[in-house]
Automatic annotation (TrEMBL):
This is TetR/AcrR family transcriptional regulator. It comes from Telmatobacter sp. DSM 110680. One of its GO terms (molecular function) is DNA binding. Keywords: DNA-binding. PROSITE patterns: HTH_TETR_2 (PS50977). The keyword Transport does not apply. It comes from the Bacteria. The keyword DNA-binding applies. Residues 46-65 bind DNA. The lineage of its organism: Bacteria, Pseudomonadati, Acidobacteriota, Terriglobia, Terriglobales.
Amino acid sequence: MKNSGSDSCKRPYELGKRLEQMGRTKAAVLASARVQLESGGMREFSMESLAKASGVTRQTIHNLFGTRSGLLETLFDQIARDAGMERMREVMMTSDPHAMLDRFIAVFSNFWAKNSLLLKRIHGIAAIDPEFGEAVRARNHRRRTAATRVIERLDSGVQSKITNDKSERVACLVALTSFEFFDALVDSLGTVEAAEEQLPGLIKRAIRSD
């Protein structure tokens, strides 16, 4: 007679091992994706090349991520976590609106600075690849939503003398916290550190926040 108790214990153990292996495989694929984007950009980035570099089959990648778009979303989430983007939750809960603006700027300038080469590749590919473009637009939409909240908080309860309307100030904050602007500022000033130092003042003057 079979020992049903032993079998029931064995099944969760085997499931745990499979999940652990799946996690390692997923991490290996994401690591390969990042390396390929940094080194070769779009020329090297494909499901086939990722499968080969990760030592798995293309079907395995489909099983893990579903589609190329799903893989990109997961990769972008990982990049954001690694660079501390989870701090945006704290930013949005900041009670003082000026401190909120400072922290909002700091989160994004730090994020762009830490991933400048990778993000340059991604934004370059996004200009010509629809899936990359959609993934980048989704991230930019989230930043616009957060920027709108920051401007609303700055304006709340204040009899403002600002002449330009909220939509213009939101657009300005979104533009000046974009990777494209940060990258151009680095090129102009010469160093990432200089760009991080100058960015807050530029933004505050542009949206007239003292």
